[in-house]
Amino acid sequence: MSSIENMIAWMQARKGKVTYSMTSRMGANSYDCSSSVFFSMVAGGFLSAGSMGNTETLFGMSGTKLKEISRGEVQRGDIFISGTPGGSAGSDGHTGIFLSNGSFIHCSYAHNGIAVDTNDSYMSTRLPHHFYQIVGSGSGSGNTDNKPQMVMLNIDGQFGNATAKRLQEYFDTTGKDGVISHQYKQTFNQNIYAAQFDSSLTGSNVVKALQRFLGIGQDGLFGKATIEALQKHLGTTQDGTISPVSDSVRELQRRLNANTL
After folding, report:
1. What is the mean predicted confidence (pLDDT) over 249-258?
2. Per-residue pLDDT for 41 more than 90?
3. Which residues contact 183 (CB under 8 A, 6 or more apart)?
4. Considering only 148-162, 176-190, 218-232, which range has the smallest mean pLDDT?
5. pLDDT of 226-237, one tens digit each?
6. Sign (positive/negative) of CA torsion 208, 92, 82, 1?
7. Which of 92, 117, 134 is the last residue of a domain?
8. What is the mean pLDDT of residues 172-188?
């Protein structure tokens, strides 16, 4: 028999006791936003054992297992999905379960685990919010597809927008847009295709985060010294240049897919 209380109890039992991970999302010590919701729905008897997916999977359940409702109609046991159907993978999506109209429980990067929040901004400040009631009773697949939340990069050696976005997700910088902003174009960095080149010398938050991680000066600019430090860390040739197809970028992509630099 389906039970909202059993579904919520699964989340509550792990509040403050697990960490957030898009790569190690299947428990027992870590989950991501969507895997925790799927495990909860299974625990509540709303999905069959083994059902799993991501925010895109949840959006796909609208009209079958989920019924879209307004924010004002939200009650205990309803869920939210942040993002746009068709484009909610990775950091472009988030989900959780309501404890009441004014509070919800979710697994988030910001809390590094499962926590309760009362402010809708914790659903996401940049993504649209959608609200759903779980309809029907008894277990069922709900058209689940076992897709992970994290977007896996192609190991192509090209420093494009997808690689930049995964780097932004890894360091949880603001504005996860796949653009490395305010870079100064030079021959050694001109093949960073995700770079936005100008003469401001303002630099990028994600480059500052990377420089902090590498233990070097933090000017936000992808200069020769930063490239050499990254290459040294990755164990690739230290020539201070990003090639059109780069072994260093390939290794960076491999490590981002493993979610460990």
Report:
1. 94
2. yes
3. 189, 192, 195, 196, 197, 198, 203, 204, 207, 221, 222
4. 148-162
5. 999 999 999 999
6. negative
7. 134
8. 90
The continuous run of DSSP H or E covering 94 comes out as strand 94-100
Give a yes or no: residue 154 inside a domain. Answer: no
Domain count, the chain: 2
Say whether pLDDT at 163 is over 70: yes
Asked whether residue 141 is domain-assigned, the answer is no
- Report d(CA 185, CA 74) in Å as an integer: 50
Q: Which of 94, 130, 182, 233 is catalytic?
A: 94
Residue 143 has pLDDT above 80, yes or no: no
| Residue 35 and residue 125 share a domain | yes
Give the DSSP per-residue string, 28-76: SSEE-HHHHHHHHHHHTTSS-TT----HHHHHHTBTTTEEEE-GGG--T
Tokens 């039992």 label which residue?
A: 13
Residues above pLDDT 90, as percent of the chain: 79
8 and 130 co-located in one domain:
yes
User: Has 111 been annotated as catalytic?
Assistant: no
128 in the same domain as 93: yes
Query: Which domain does 211 fall in, by range?
Result: 161-257
Q: Which of 106, 130, 182, 233 is catalytic?
A: 106
pLDDT at residue number 22 = 84
Relative to beta strand 129-134, strand 113-117 is unpaired
pLDDT at 138 over 70: no
Are 167 and 79 contained in the same domain? Answer: no
